[in-house]
Amino acid sequence: MTSTPAAEFRAAVERGDADAATDLFIDHARFHSPIVHRPYEGREALRAILRAVVQVFEDFRYTAEYQGEGGHVLVFEARVGDRALEGVDILRERDGRLAELTVMIRPYSAATALRERMAALLPPH
Hints:
Layout (H helix, E strand, L loop, with lengths): L4 H10 L3 H5 L2 E8 L7 E2 L1 H14 L1 E11 L2 E10 L2 E12 L2 E10 L1 H12 L6
Parallel strand pairs: 1-6
Antiparallel strand pairs: 1-2, 3-4, 4-5, 5-6
């Protein structure tokens, strides 16, 4: 079985290894947050976000995945405090490497709890 960047990303996130997940991205990667309207630019910004996420999400697990041309969608469930959430990681590739990550989360109350916890760990954007 051939490993893909999306499969390697999933494995790294599942073991809580934010650095390994980040290293799969190009230097000028882009991250679209479910909370912040303006994208984060660069792999090091993404690294800080993923390091915070592995601290904030509890009981994280991927539940499904879908693949299409140039991209991959990983569906997940987790908790932030007492709030259960569902979300998706949308991964886009460029030249065999991950280039972009978009995260969407529901419900709003869980996204709000996530925003509050992440704000304590990250500088303002």
